[in-house]
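User: I'm preparing a small set of examples for a lab meeting where we compare how different chains pack in three dimensions. I only have the primary sequence for this one, and I'd like the structure in token form so I can line it up with the others. Please keep the answer compact; I'll paste it straight into my notes.
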Amino acid sequence: MNTLPTSSPRFGAKQWVILIATIISVAITASLGVWQLRRADFKEQLAAQILKRNELPALENTALIAMNFVADSVNKEAWLQRRTNVQGRWLHEHTVFLDNRPMQVSGSQRVGFYVATPLALEGSNKVIWVQRGWVQRDFQDRSKLPELVQPDAAVNVQGRLIERISRAYEMQGGASMAAAPTAEARPSRIWQNLPIVSFGSKELLPAALLQTSSEVEKDALLREWPAPNTGLAKHHGYAFQWFALSALLSVLYVWFQIISPRRKR
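Assistant: Understood. Below is the structure token output for the 265-residue chain.
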């Protein structure tokens, strides 16, 4: 008796579940890749805006004092990375040295201090923190502070507006967040992050300055600041990973659900 040939396996419930799960997974990973490309496009536009802002006239005292940072806290295009040329007096008694900060020195990366000093703006009661520069620490005596030029007269500070002074990772509840109303109340001027300081009747602006030029010659501070990083390459990398995962899921489905069963039959 001749036997009938066996029919091919039916497309059952299990195969439907695998197909639907694969379609959903591919759609999700592909959409995440598209979202990362949109973020990259937004960051690219932001970088172009920063370049345009560098071509604008530098903000001086009057414009900086009149600027409403609170209203523009969400939409920072009005002031972020704008060039400044302001006059004021350093509040040297509040200078802090932010520890473990890197800087490119003679082609190699070294670790030292970022020097931050508040600047009392001329013609107002406003104060703004200034990230003045980098200085190497004394590795023989880690508690020794470098000697800085401390002019008492009014100075002219050129720089760029940034959201805040550099921050490094710190455990929650670290000492940097403790209030220290005066320089004498602080056990040390070496901090991981900027402390909370009271300036009495003076008002602290909710932004900071990144100083780009020295107000005096040879002030021993380096200012080789890196260019503003918008994270464009990061988003492109994430997009590639999501698209690669989407392609991998598609290849795996075709191999294990279509090609491999046919080869076995």
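A couple of notes for your slides: Strands lie at 83-90, 96-105, 108-121, 126-136, 155-162, 190-191, 203-211. The chain is about 30% helix and 25% strand.

User: Perfect, thanks.
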